[in-house]
Write a structure and sequence with these properties.
There is one protein chain. This protein is about 5% helix and about 50% strand. With about 375 residues, the protein is mostly beta strands. The strands form nine sheets. It has a four-stranded antiparallel sheet, with no helix packed on it. The chain has a four-stranded antiparallel sheet with strand order 4-5-6-7, with no helix packed on it. The longest helix is centred in the middle third of the chain and has 8 residues, at about 195-200. β1 and β2 form a beta hairpin. It has a domain at about 20-245 and about 350-375: Neuraminidase, CATH 2.120.10.
Amino acid sequence: MNKFKITVAGIILFFAGLSYTQELNVELTELFVIGADENASAEYMFRYPRQVVTDSRDNIYIADEGLQKISVFDKNGKFIKYIGRCGQGPGEFQEILSMTIDSNDNLIIVDRKNMRVTKYFNFGNKYKCYRLNKHIEPWQISCLNKNDYIFYYHEIKSSKPKETDELLHIYSGDFKVKKSFASAGEVYDFNEPFQVAYSEFDPYACMCVVDSTKVLFTQKYNYGFINLYKLKGNKWVLEKLTGKVLNKAPFKVLRKYRRSPKNKKEYVNVWNSKYGKFYYKDLCVNMGIFLLNDGKIVHFFLTKKDKYIFYAEIFNKNGDYIGVGCGSFINFQSYENKDYVPIDGILWKDKDDKFYVRALVNGLPAVRVLQLKYSINK
């Protein structure tokens, strides 16, 4: 397989009218790619890899939007088997929205259309199904501890989102809700109509379980901080990890939009929400938060001015800011526009600090496996 590295030197960068000294050298090395081979068999072809997880034996589970079943590969990317199939019955899926894997290598899959959770045992050979509340859309699920799970979703209990609506929900092992916390007003700016609308539907929000008493959470847009929820007694208390602010605003909402004939490459998002139609540009968006093996926290995000720039910032285990480094992640491209970089590309981190990234390779959907290394400039 071809390998590439993104190595960042300690230089002065100027972006969005701001300058700062880069504190980190960040290196991402591609180990191998799953998919994107026109000559390979059908097992290696994807339409849109939505989710990826790995187990303790380094097996790789990929949920593809087109297949609606799980493709299982070994640690080198060789196909092993399928789990499940498309359908409405037990062990079948219509829309796999999120999935995770627990400490016993049990695979947990959330199906939005079938409104259930399926828990697979014994390498996918046995399973049990659990019904979900039909009003929820669980965009993310993680293991909180050996017995409980944590979901991210916004359950709208009135005609419009409210600041008091809760976003994070703890479920028992039989998938009954136990506790909810993290109010929408703590995460989204309710003075901005676009943010109010987006709080109801944010598939790009990022969640990371540090341990059973600490959960990191951010919305799609990067305001320069990460929400850290700590369990103190019976209450989850909010703290904020402050990082680097590179944009005065992480998005720009346009009142009207007409594409300039001189700039055909310009990309503007259009969203027809039930609260109105929004034309907007993404300027600084979160790509994921992950806990590294050394106990530090890595936060990935993208900024956009004349081009996209990919950043990684590091916090220590206490949440103190260490530094940031960047590089042009030129291999992220969308399906519709070669100049648009998708914001939901980093899907999973395994026990060896390898990252699983959704991207196009030679114009075909694939999962790239990258190894992260970083060092602190002195």
